[in-house]
Hints:
Family: Belongs to the peptidase S8 family.
Strand order of the largest sheet: 4-5-3-8-9
Number of strands: 9
Distance between the termini: 38 Å
Protein name: Subtilisin BPN
GO molecular function: serine-type endopeptidase activity
Shape: elongated
Number of domains: 2
Organism: Colletotrichum higginsianum (strain IMI 349063) (Crucifer anthracnose fungus)
CATH topology of the largest domain: Rossmann fold
CATH class of the largest domain: Alpha Beta
Amino acid sequence: xxxxxxxxxxxxxxxxxxxxxxxxxxxxxxxxxxxxxxxxxxxxxxxxxxxxxxxxxxxxxxxxxxxxxxxxxxxxxxxxxxxxxxxxxxxxxxxxxxxxxxxxxxxxxxxxxxxxxxxxxxxxxxxxxxxxxxxxxxxxxxxxxxxxxxxxxxxxxxxxxxxxxxxxxxxxxxxxxxxxxxxxxxxxxxxxxxxxxxxxxxxxxxxxxxxxxxxxxxxxxxxxxxxxxxxxxxxxxxxxxxxxxxxxxxxxxxxxxxxxxxxxxxxxxxxxxxxxxxxxxxxxxxxxxxxxxxxxxxxxxx
Length: 302
């Protein structure tokens, strides 16, 4: 923990009505100078009073205070195409994959661009790296070369259920596996490949099998994706991508702030999906010229 953060938390522990302050994540001061913590005690019964106390502590000037928000897991529509129907199209393997034609990825492949030498950090539900289309292994020399599991299988949003480990493998959700395949799937019997099959992936699992995550976990994953040392490549991902079920049109949320600061201070492009939330209207902005393509039922993109 950084000294300024420790001093601040110690001062908060000394406040009347505070029984315990438990640090959850202390983020890199170079990228996002913040700390996530849980407070227990009678003072938590009056959140406005607790907030004023935290803002008024002289030990550290606090610019923003945010509650930890739950982040729902990303969803996907399931078996749009079953395996047998994909296998029936495998005879077209030598032809162009139609989604790649739509966005002209096929043109890049023809020119020899496959993403070689690029590292992409995927912040999502984890990945089934055992899948043959994703290389079947995890670690140096593999397609899924680096990553981390921040949550474990049973995280329900409460800190006590966090069970992090060094392997982002999962097979209970599948969304992160889907995203990884869209990016980098290798040639396979079903006749498709990813948009950039030459990249190396770093996958950061932020959703449990129960579909739970929180904004402080997501921020920790983004920062780790930017800072992880990757064998033979150096420090950090070249691109960070995130697909979550978090609904917000505001740039001042902690997750948006963290992504913006990481991108600004490292130069790493941080990409977030526009989402599938057509039920929330064209846009959460009042500006009449700003619209989200996810609003259209027959949309071409997220």
